[in-house]
Amino acid sequence: GQTWWDYHEDPNTGTGKWCAGTVVEVHDDCFAVRDANKDVVWLSTGGRSTADELLMEGMRELRCIEWTKMSLRLMQCYPGDEVSDGATPIDLSRPVRPGEVIDYFLSHVVQDEAELKWRALEDLAKTFYRAHGRYPTFWYDLACLDPAATSDALCKLPIAVMSCNRFLVLLSPSYQYRLWCIWEIFT
User: Fold this and answer.
1) What percent of the chain shows pLDDT beyond 70?
2) Measured between alpha carbons, how far is 184 from 106 in angstroms, rounded to an integer?
3) Staple partner for 93: which of 143, 153, 161, 164, CB 3.0–4.6 Å?
4) What is the pTM of this model?
């Protein structure tokens, strides 16, 4: 009978909303949620039974994107879009190396002011290079989350946040109205 929130996004517009459902059945590896339309949806827990297992899986799957792979086009993409030459955003990222700490967790709204945000990122990358002799790495959800495993994204978000030195918000007009962005901040 517990409430379960699920995000429903329109792939054409990129807008979405959170919808409440009710957990109606629980098993070791899955659970069922009845949504507002009275539909029952089964969700997998991935067979994980402990937080330690989730942490280990999240660390194994942790990815980052190098500044040299970032682009204005990437900042304008939606999940499944091609960035260039058939490459999707996830193709541009790489696994985090053992002992590596990602420089920035990047939080922004795709629909808002891409050119302005891109210029701010360019300035940040140049400043970072002057200070550290290298360009920064980023955790950027679009490039670092496996689009086939989005159901685990919220569970693993704290791992990504804790794996970064800094949390970077590219603030824009609708940022405070996007639940995903707010979730990132309060993770």
Assistant:
1) 73
2) 9
3) 143
4) 0.72
Instruction: Name the residue with higher pLDDT: 125 or 38.
Output: 125
Whole-number Cα distances in Å, 119 to 77, 80, 104, 124, 170: 17, 24, 16, 9, 11
DSSP letters, the chain, are --EEEEEEE-TTT--EEEEEEEEEEE-SSEEEEE-TTS-EEEEE-TT--SHHHHHHHHHHH-EEEEGGG--HHHHH--TT---BTTB-HHHH-EEPPTT--EEEEEE--TTS-HHHHHHHHHHHHHHHHHHHSS--EEEEHHHHS-GGGGGGHHHHHHHHHHTEEEEEE---TTGGG-HHHHHHHT-
pLDDT above 60 for 125: yes
Tell me if 62 sits within 8 A of 42, measured CB to CB: no
